[in-house]
């Protein structure tokens, strides 16, 4: 939301930055990285996966420069829903009932797999005790309705859509998930190209404008009037057939300084190595470039 608010409020224009949104049918970093590597786009945002690590190891000069979305208290914008047939039969009532079950996820590795593993660890299970089924969020409500998966891990607005349609029944959501994860989780890492990192003046201006958008968002979400404005902006950039969906969703967390705990990338990579997703980890210092972010903070 910080990016779209900055667009609407003219923050990028004031900073002398011209921003173009390029729609990609990409669901993961693995899909987006080639576009950055060959210069078609300058940056993208997404959840951490092995694709970023492998790209850096292969010599592609891309780096994480900030984070624009996180799971934060009150803003953990994800839910786990039980498929309608399983809920009606009473087969699944708690997380402990997920052993041997299938869970639809947008990605079967990286940060998403870490999240599922952490959620399950609270009841003595691991990600290896379930079957992860990769599926786009838009397809998950139908899969829940027909029972082709037992549970789905849905980001918003798809979680709320599934509940509204009666396709699934809430297992856990929002702060219930946050309490199991026991930390802020960066889900909106921004990865920039070598050219964008080299053009630090422009990148600093862009990040400062985005930071202004982040601060506006957090202030707006404290009042009904501000939230209505956020709904109008969301509807403009992510139009929904039923705009009232935005009244019920769990909204994303946006760190005001676009920061995240970079050491978390080490923990995450250790998990990925243990699962065979990575051959070896890369020190987080080689994955991030925060110089522009640090300079942007002095301007806001």
Give the SSE map.
Elements: H1 2-9, H2 11-14, H3 29-37, E1 43-46, H4 50-57, E2 63-67, E3 70-71, E4 78-83, H5 84-89, E5 102-105, H6 110-121, E6 131-134, H7 140-146, E7 151-155, H8 158-165, E8 168-173, H9 175-181, E9 185-186, E10 189-192, H10 194-198, H11 200-220, H12 224-237, H13 245-248, H14 264-274, H15 291-297
Parallel strand pairs: 5-6, 5-7
Antiparallel strand pairs: 1-10, 2-10, 3-9, 4-7, 4-8
Helix pairs in contact: 1-11, 7-8, 11-15
Describe this protein's structure.
The structure is a single chain. With about 300 residues, the chain is an alpha+beta fold. It has 2 domains: about 180 residues, 3-Layer(aba) Sandwich (D-Maltodextrin-Binding Protein, domain 2); about 100 residues, Periplasmic binding protein-like II (D-Maltodextrin-Binding Protein, domain 2), CATH 3.40.190. It is about 45% helix and about 15% strand. The protein has 15 helices and 10 strands. The strands form 3 sheets. Strands 6-5-7-4-8 form a 5-stranded mixed β-sheet, with helices on both faces. It has a 3-stranded antiparallel β-sheet with strand order 1-10-2. β5, α6 and β6 form a beta-alpha-beta unit. α1 crosses α11, α7 packs parallel to α8 and α11 crosses α15. The two termini are about 20 Å apart. The mean pLDDT is about 95.
Explain briefly what this protein structure is.
This protein is α+β, with helices and mostly antiparallel strands and 300 residues long.
